[in-house]
Amino acid sequence: VSRFEGVTMAPPDPILGVSEAFKADTDEKKLNLGVGAYRTEELQPYVLDVVKKAENLMLERGENKEYLPIEGLAAFNKVTAELLFGADNSVLKEQRVATVQGLSGTGSLRLAAALIERYFPGAKVLISSPTWGNHKNIFNDARVPWSEYRYYDPKTVGLDFEGMIADIKAAPGGSFILLHGCAHNPTGIDPTPEQWEKIADVIQEKNHIPFFDVAYQGFASGSLDNDASSVRLFATRGMELLVAQSYSKNLGLYAERIGAMNVVCSSSDLAARCCEVAVIQVKSQLKRLARPMYSNPPVHGARIVANVVGNPALFDEWKAEMEMMAGRIKNVRQKLFDSLSAKDKSGKDWSFILRQIGMFSFTGLNKAQSDNMTNKWHVYMTKDGRISLAGLSLAKCEYLADAIIDSYH
Ligand code: PMP
After folding, report:
1. What range(s) does the Aminotransferase class I/classII large domain occupy (predicted)?
2. Is the CB of 246 inside a 6 Å radius of any atom of ligand 1?
3. Candidates 124, 249, 283, 335; catalytic one
């Protein structure tokens, strides 16, 4: 007998488990709309040209494989904060941001969760209902209590703004409010600029700490600056905030595990010195938390980002490639809407699909209907009704529309 027999079976991951089931399906009509990974029109994985160019440069330079410092590659940390806040933002000029390289978005969120657990004992994190499936796991494993704020309104397939504001107001003062910087996952519904202002008002009133998860910068609108406007709005108000970043989607660096954790400290202190000390202290503690977890982060992805963002020619090429990717998703979104509207004779209004942004569409299909999509139509998707449009081609839109209409009615 094994002493590990008492280790019970863990349930499959609701997102990555979908890919495993997809692999096992032998039907040639099968379609994987589970995980949010960009595919070409031929449904093949895509390595960006700028990434290949940056890797060639790296190879030519013959860079070594020595350990990075605990906080990561300095050139990466500099450009990642600039990409997020804008290079001329006062938070950077005043050196109010502690930035450390993280293990992509997930690892950066986990590091921040560890900071909250250690320095804000008992503080609660408020997460949107629904949210990306891993958020709850991250805070559970870090032993950080969380609860949900209303976000999605099934009646309008839109934002429950009143509910969201009421729940943020009702949370104990000094809570952390987790916000998706852009392209909310799984709903694809973002607050408008006016709504962001009101959200910031309530968070300030209640002395909460905004905690942004930015996993899709550039993927919502196709513009890196537009997609950072929510974070910049909060930063410009002089608020303290946390921001996790990921380069999985926008640079297609999924497996390189490259991202960052940024902590912005306040400017409202009369003594600027307080803030300076806070930044240094926060950074020291993030390093202290990272060291026993993974010691120091991997270098390859950090160098790619530093080369792409730090080189004006490559940066421009990246923006063009990102517009191409975001554009392809928009085309598929339109085609799916057109196919559904043409085929569905029930009179259902499908325009919510066009109002959603980013990689995903939240179809409103419930669990049983999502099961029908998979079991009958071989369309793999998460059970919350989310489909990844990044895994869809124009050629497959009609088939998908048939599957959705059959499952709905
Ligand atoms: N946050 C959200 C909302 C996400 O959708 C994702 C990716 N699916 C992540 C964070 C993190 O992904 P990664 O760890 O690959 O950067």
Report:
1. 29-404
2. yes
3. 249
